[in-house]
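Quarterly update from the structural biology core.
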Amino acid sequence: MKFSIVIPIYKVENYLHECVDSVLNQTFADFEIILVDDGSPDRCPQICDEYAKQHSNISVIHQKNAGIACARNAGIAAAKGKYVICIDSDDYLVGADVLSCINEKTTSNPDVIMFGYKKYFESDKSWGEPVCPTLSTGLSTAESLKELLVNGSYIATAWTKAVRREVLVKNNITFKPGMVSGEDVDWYLNLLCSVDKFECLQKACVAYRQRPDSISHSPKLQSLTDFIWILEEWPKRFSKRNISMEFKTVLMNTMAYYWANVFVLYSTYDNKVAKPYKKRLKSLCYLNQNAITSRALTMKRFYKILGFDMTILLLKVLGKIKKRQ
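Predicted structure, tokenized:
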């Protein structure tokens, strides 16, 4: 079997049919779908069971609610395909040729196949511009990662990847339970340290639904603490990994990329809420010396000239201006 499609499910009864049907309608048929009901309190468990009864290539896992990380882990553990693809249950595949296009990229047996997405805005049923990774051929892992960072097409989300299952199993790469919005990044950093070859499909394969009640649009404080933890933990892990100095350098470039993003995230919280984490974030500002992306380089200049407090104030002002536009 070529593909295992893992779909974690929680409170998405209005979107689940569109998601699952978008996979069933693929012209490429060598796949299984693993529906992981994460203790959903709506009709999702029944919908999952109905699909399994109607389609022999669909299986269902019912579990107590434990979060998306645990749901994905359960699905991947049950997977049998050569490649694993995770799809969020409120998103869906764009077009019937997605799996066929991804399959064409498997001929060289890459560890990871990256593909793009485009945002679907539920409020007015409009579409954003496609966001697709671009990568030259014949690059090493370090060169590939650096190019993705520099050209602005670095994407860490699990749902824009087809990953060789053997890589995940052999290296025990799983999603960290309990994280709110950093589980994909933590998982992808683990993956980056364990792969040798990337392929890139410059096609928007996933419709990334933008809905007001989603986690990504209602960030909790834990989103900030998750990413601060990543910035504190992963540089130490890189130093212990048996990887080349060239690759360690590029991985530190990714830390600078996330450092800039966390600065922006910090600025979105009320001062009283964010203040307890100020010292920890300031201690991570050394990461800006590894900046190579546009945002990180800009943030580095602001920080050097204005310092921590004035940079955060500037970001707050810019954030308010952006909201008014």
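The CA atoms of residues 231 and 284 lie 7 Å apart.
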